[in-house]
Write a structure and sequence with these properties.
The protein is of the alpha/beta class. It contains 14 helices and 13 strands. It folds into 2 domains: 199 residues, Glycogen Phosphorylase B (Rossmann fold, 3-Layer(aba) Sandwich); 150 residues, Glycogen Phosphorylase B (Rossmann fold, 3-Layer(aba) Sandwich), CATH 3.40.50. Helix 1 packs across helix 14.
């Protein structure tokens, strides 16, 4: 084992897709839960996710490697995919560069890595196979399933569906996390996986400047940029404060064209506030129905005005779960963009908050992984 790693008895690699921040949030939740159980762990993280995303959630027992582990979907916007861009990037990514696979496999063997965990990033599976290290797949969907949904629009996805389906089927262990898109034989199915809040809601509200007795609504597009054309009209809703990560960037783009109301807390995408803390401190959440937001809102129990992604196959399963398990109202893209959803805000805020029981999926996964590596 390399010098400096000797104090960590177990080394585990995480390969994480760069598709949005939801998968990084899920993997980080698992790593944090696992570290709470065991202090002898060292994580080697392979991802094209900004370093700041892991800071504050994981301690110093990890190394981050800037490696392209997956393509996922190229995006036009937070709600719309770029199919041509996706196919172009896939043609450069698959089949894998064997020089890269071998280099990464040699690195994992050199540091005596015990396990490779992949949050749908296929490169990690290939590296684990080359290194002879057991591999665990964590998923609520896989890319062969997603790409299959676009075959009617473009048959070129078929070769990637076939390649990835075979690769995903070769893992040693499979964990599915609710909401699951396609039930597949697996060793474990868990509750939704989310990062846990770490700051009391009353303190978060005070730091945001939310007055006592006011309602707080979080508007989030899951880390993607959005124009937020409705910001000016938020001032018409007295007694409600709107917290909007990314509104700072939206305001800068519009410049002097927009005057922000006093009940808007405009945050940058990267702020000092931990996203699960914002969710937990809210009286309602409005935003894109992506995995990490759904999981965080689910565990917080707050009402959710969800915006589905009309063409992304995962969205169907997320919407079914939201409608079945969460206090919610649907908000379509046009209504969201124009601010028409504000007419339904009283109805959303009238929905009761749900008290959740049971174990977070992050802890369930951590317990499973701990048993696999305890030797």
């Amino acid at each position: 084992m390399e010098a400096g790693l000797h104090r960590y008895r177990r080394c585990v690699a995480f390969f994480i897709t760069p598709h949005g921040y939801g998968h990084a949030a899920r993997s980080t939740a698992v790593m944090a839960a696992w570290r709470r159980r065991a202090q002898d762990l060292r994580f080697e993280i392979f991802a094209r996710v900004p370093a700041w995303f892991f800071e504050g959630t994981l301690d110093g027992s990890y190394a981050l490697h800037n490696v392209l582990t997956d393509i996922g979907m190229a995006q036009h916007t937070a709600l719309h995919e770029d199919l041509e861009g996706t196919l172009r990037q896939l043609s450069r990514f698959l089949p894998f560069d064997q020089v890269i696979v071998r280099r990464l496999a040699d690195h994992l063997k050199r540091i005596e890595c015990r396990l490779v965990v992949c949050d749908i990033a296929p490169l990690g599976i290939a590296v684990a196979r080359a290194a002879g290290i057991p591999c665990v797949l964590i998923e609520n969907f896989t890319w062969d399933y997603i790409y299959e949904g676009y075959l009617e629009k473009d048959r070129r996805f078929q070769e990637y569906v076939s390649q990835l389906r075979e690769l995903y089927a070769s893992v040693d262990y499979r964990i599915q996390t609710e909401p699951v898109c396609q039930r597949t034989p697996s060793q474990l199915t868990t509750a939704p996986v989310s990062r846990a809040p770490r700051t009391p809601a009353t303190l978060v509200r005070r730091l945001l400047g939310i007055p006592d007795g006011a309602r707080m609504v979080l508007i989030t597009m899951g880390g993607f940029s959005w124009e937020y054309r409705f910001l000016e009209v938020l001032g018409e809703h007295l007694g409600i404060f709107f917290v909007v990560p990314g509104a700072r960037e939206a305001q800068e783009k519009l410049g002097a064209q927009i005057s922000l109301p006093g009940n808007l807390v405009a945050l940058p995408h990267r702020s000092r506030f931990f996203h699960p803390d914002l969710v937990n401190a809210s009286d309602a959440v409005i935003g894109k129905a992506g995995y990490s937001t759904v999981a965080e809102v689910y565990w917080a129990g707050v009402p959710f005005g969800y915006v589905p992604r009309p063409h992304f196959r995962e969205s169907q399963a997320l919407v079914q779960f939201i409608e079945r398990e969460m206090p919610c109202i649907p908000v379509n893209e046009e209504s969201f963009d124009r601010g028409e959803w504000l007419a339904s805000l009283p109805k959303l805020l009238a929905l009761p908050r749900v008290s959740r029981e049971g174990e977070n999926g992050a802890d369930q996964v951590a317990q499973f992984l701990d048993r696999l590596t305890e030797w």
